[in-house]
Amino acid sequence: MARAPEGPPPAPAVQRLRLRYAKRGRLRFSSHRDFQRAFERALRRAGVPMAYSAGFTPHPKVSYAGAAPTGVASEAEYLEIAVAQRVDPRRLAAALDASLPPGLDILEAVEARSGSGSLAERLAASVWELRMPGVDPGTATGAVSTFLRAERVEVSRLTKNGVRAFDARVAVVALDARSAGLRAEGGSCAILRLVVRHITPAVRPDDVLAGLRQVAALAPPVPPEVTRLAQGPLEESAGSLERLVGDPLSPDRDAVGTVAPAPPA
Fold it and tell me: Is residue 129 predicted with pLDDT exceeding 50?
């Protein structure tokens, strides 16, 4: 007969909250595991009355969804927590933001409405911005046109199971090139805006860059500065590129709390 843990069972969850947070500046190089450790410390520091799992090693009930790769910045990371006592989302967001290091910033907290579905299921696509110093915008525009005309762009990536080849074109919903003007050092800078559907295997910005290099010989002289601008449901009938991805927290918006976001580093 299995041995049961000693002591009373953990208090049940009475409220679920969904949070949007950002990774900025040097903190874009933090891994997802680094953020998990920092966030759990912030929960304790802020005195959040977390609900815990049962068993011999209880864990705070935190669910992470759609984390960005290490090395890229993001204005649209999401997670969900469960608490054992009701809290005010606005105060929770402010307390957690104050308890995290600068560059890991809590932007918003909303109470999850009953029956509103899974947060992870709402994260169907992402909007990415790729700043490419040293790349002529006209050259980038030509490369984007070549990429979009291709029916298939096969790229390879090293995974834990070895090198895997897959189509980077199939996940790209929209892609365009813009000019960032002259930088302080006098060079040109192209900006790519990219909407990628979340599929398996995941297609990341670096996979699209590999595809642009393959089909159009676009090779930035320095690594691009990559930022996720939005993440949410795919609105394929929307007009502009930026409107193709909706707000994943809108179904829960009647219980919103916000903190003023700091400007991106």
Answer: yes
